[in-house]
Amino acid sequence: MELTSVVPAEAILEPQGRYLAxxxxxxxxxxxxxxxxxxxxxxxxxxxxxxxxxxxPLTARGGGTGLAGGAVPVSGGVxxxxxxxxxxxxxxxxxxxxxxxxxxxxxxxxxxxxxSGLRFPxxxxxxEISQIGGNIAxxxxxxxxxxxxxxxxxVTGLEVVVPPGEIVHVGGPIRKDVAAYDLKSLFVGSEGTxxxxxxxxxxxxxxxxxxxxxxxxxxxxxxxVSAIERVLASxxxxxxxxxxDGVTLxxxxxxxxxxxxxGAAFMVITEADGSAAEARRVxxxxxxxxxxxxxxxxxxxxxxxxxxxxxxRGGAAFAILAQRGGAYSEDIAVPLDKLRDVxxxxxxxxxxxxxxxxxxxxxxxGNIHSTFLFSPDDADxxxxxxxxxxxxxxxxLRLGGTVSGExxxxxxxxxxxxxxxxxxxxxxxxxxxxxxxxxxLLNPGKKQ
Length: 448
Ligand SMILES: Cc1cc2nc3c(=O)[nH]c(=O)nc-3n(C[C@H](O)[C@H](O)[C@H](O)COP(=O)(O)OP(=O)(O)OC[C@H]3O[C@@H](n4cnc5c(N)ncnc54)[C@H](O)[C@@H]3O)c2cc1C
Description:
Blueprint (H helix, E strand, L loop, with lengths): L11 E2 L20 E3 L4 H14 L3 E4 L16 E4 L6 E5 L4 E5 L4 H10 L2 E2 L12 H7 L6 H4 L6 E8 L3 E6 L11 H5 L8 E8 L1 E2 L3 E9 L2 H13 L6 E6 H7 L13 E9 L1 H16 L4 E3 L4 H22 L1 E4 L2 E2 L5 H15 L3 E6 L4 E8 L4 H20 L17 H21 L12
Parallel strand pairs: 2-4, 3-4
Antiparallel strand pairs: 1-2, 5-6, 6-10, 7-11, 8-9, 8-10, 12-14, 12-15, 13-14, 13-18, 16-19, 17-19, 18-19
Helix pairs in contact: 6-8, 10-11
């Protein structure tokens, strides 16, 4: 029986380039026998049933912006893309909730909420391309996760297709649910290995009246991390606490809209939000905490400048990538008292492996994008950058952290989970996989 017997022929494509690799092309190339773009949940279920009957691997693909090789079909078989499953099923602004199909982009959800004075707070950097299904599968974060939490925090219900092709619903348009084991949270962050998310109920909040970034510049990482510690100890809750180290500033600072001060080798970005009065009060506290030992403090208060700041911050990843054409940008997370160690040791690891190194990221969550650069034309340099990542993962575990705070394990971090969880923890993890996907056909080889 052919795949065309269960979904319309026009939903099936020949495998083509963009479905076989991640958008950021981190060197992982897959193969597939077919790409299917279903338009309904029933078609998703039919494809899974067909794959299960024929023992064919099935890899979910959202926007392809993942940074761990998670959507790359490394075992061949069928790629299932969600871009045609892109309807808003229901939007109840007065009840602060939205029901969307998995293929709606993060940016569209954010915009729709904003037009009604609401906010969908998760803000991963590739929002115009990434999809809600992909955000849920990776439990994506972003700068404002410090105050608002990551994607899973904003999901109240899921429709998921699970092997061998059943449609299940967990949660819904409800704000509390403790009836079953927390199946919703198992699907959140499962990277397409337990089920295929076809729709989600999302929780929204009223948008803040005012957002006021306060940015400090420091001569070195020590002074910058001390400023972050003062912010945390100040007793106010910023919406975001980000940092960029000196190398990151060197590569991306030219486009910073307000001018990087001379001698700056560390930058801390915080933001106050809330009602106008609350945002101003918090911003004043942040200013005081950041000013000590700083070279300069910037506090843009014009809405256009604030957007410009975050646009620039979002572009930093591309400015870094442009340096040598290749970058392994990891996403370890460590306890907050270890930020100083990560900033310093990232550079030391780069030196040991003779590759350019830098770090930046979501400092308030201890979630740092330590990055090692390479030229894609230089296989030896690429290998050294990869070796540097492995040493970085060891560092994360030595500091009591995790090998992934945002991007997931995917394919690129394969083998790391067992180190982190230990034998018994890893065994439990794999038993969950076995319970959901006994034939190991859903995104095989990933998240392990
Ligand atoms: C410039 C840039 C900045 C980024 N910034 C951030 C950031 O700040 N925070 C952050 O967390 N991430 C960030 N990312 C990573 C990425 O954008 C997120 O992980 C995002 O959630 C991936 O969504 P996607 O739709 O592109 O998923 P894909 O890359 O297509 O897939 C990712 C994983 O989810 C699975 N999947 C996709 N759709 C489904 C579905 N419907 N059901 C089940 N499984 C599915 C795939 O199999 C794969 O394992 C960034 C990426 C880039 C390129």
